[in-house]
Amino acid sequence: MHTDELQETALARTEPRTYGDNLLRGGTKVAKDGDEVVVAGHDLAREVAEDPQRYSSAVSRFMQLPNGLDGEEHTKVRAMIEQYLDAPAVEHLEPDFRELAREIVRDAAAKDSVDAVGDIGAQYAVRAMTAWLGWLEDINDELVAWVADNNAATRSGQLERTAAVAERFDDIIRSVVEPLLENPDDSVTSHLVRDESLGRPLEFEEIVSVLRNWTAGDLSSMAYCIGVIIEALIEHPELKDRLAQGVSRAEFTAIADEILRADSPFVSNRRVTTCPVSLGDVELPKGQKVRIHWTAANRDPDTFADVDGFDSDANAAQNLVWGAGPHACPGKELSVIELQAFTEELCAAVDLSRAGEGEREIHPVGGWASLPVRLTARG
Question: How does residue 25 score in pLDDT terms, banded at 50, 70 and 90?
C-alpha cells in the first residue's frame, strides 16, 4: 500500500484518546493527516521509535538538543544531559518536593474547589522545576502564567501565537542564564552553563535549547500528568489508599506508568524517513513525515486487553508512555520522583472528589485541560 491509499484523518482539534480509539477500533494502524503519516498501532510505533537510522528525529528548523539529533551526536549530547537528570543527581530534592506538595495541597484544601491542572498541577510543576534548576522563587508567578498561555496557544493551533509564546519563554531563560555567565553559583543551571563534557564549552544558544527542552514542554506535561493522576485516584480509591501508606519507587513507577498509559499527556513525536521504508503493509518514500501517536499506541486493543483498565503488571512490558528507543524520555527518573512526592503527600493529606465537569485537551496535547476537584482534609 502506498501513502496515497491510507485513510485520511484530521488531527487538528481532536481529543487524542478519541482519535486513536476510533482508528484502532476500525482496524487502522497507520493513517494520513495532510502530508504526515500517523502511526497509531503499538507495534509499528515501537518499530519507528527504535529505528533512528531509517526514522530521523531531525524534523525541526529550530535547534533541539538532544531531541533533534541522531546517531553519535545524539548519544554524546544525551549523555551530557543525563548527568543532571538521573536518580543519583536528583534524589536529594525529594524532601523539597514533598514540602512543596504539602504546601500546595494545604492551600487547595482551604478552597471550595480548585482546578487539578491549572491550580494544583501548574503550581507544583513550576515550583518543583525552579527548585531543581536553582532559579529564584520570584520567577514562579511568571512561569505559572506562561504555562497557561502556552497551553492556550498550543490549543489554538495558531503558529504566530505559539511562536510568540515560545520566544517569551526563551527570554525568561536568557534572563536566568546571562547573569550566571559572569557570576556562577552551585545551581544545576550554572553547572550546565559551565559544562565542557562535550570537549568544549556550550554555546549560548545550545544552553538555551537544553533548558528549553528541560522546561518549556515539561512544565505543561507535569501539570497534565498531575491532572490525570488525580482523576485516576478519584476513580480508583483503592489506589489512593495504597499510595497514602507510601510505596517503593518501583511500585509507584508501575502505578503511575499504568495510569498514564491509559490517559497519556505525551501525545506524539515526529520523525522523517531517511530512505524508502516498509512499515507494516505501507510503503513510505524517503523524506516522508511520520508522527508516532503514543496515546493511540498505548491504547491499542491488540496489545492491551482492556485499554481503560488498570493492570500494571500485565501491561508494563508494552507500556510506551515514556517513549522507546534512543529518544525515550531522559527525564523519566526526575519526573517519577516529582510525581511520587506529590501523589503520596496528596493521598495522605486529603480526600478527593469531583467538583464539576472537566474539559479534555485537544491535539497536540492530551489529558485534562481543566478538572474541577474538591480536596477535603482528612481528620
Answer: very high
Pairing of strands 359-360, 368-370: antiparallel
Q: What stretch of H or E contains 30?
A: strand 30-33
d(CA 47, CA 70): 16
Q: What's the pLDDT tens digit per position in 59-76?
A: 988 888 999 999 999 999
CA dist 4 and 16 (Å) reads: 23
* pLDDT one-digit tens code per residue, 251-280: 999 999 999 999 999 999 999 999 999 999
SS3 180: helix
CATH code for residues 3-377: 1.10.630.10
The residue ranges of every structural domain in the chain are 3-377
Could you tell me the three cell numbers for 183?
A: 557570576
Yes or no: say if 315 and 304 are a contact pair by the CB < 8 Å rule. yes
**First vs last Cα of the chain: how many Å apart?**
62
Mean pLDDT score, 118-127? 95
| Residues contacting residue 179 through CB under 8 Å, at least 6 positions apart | none
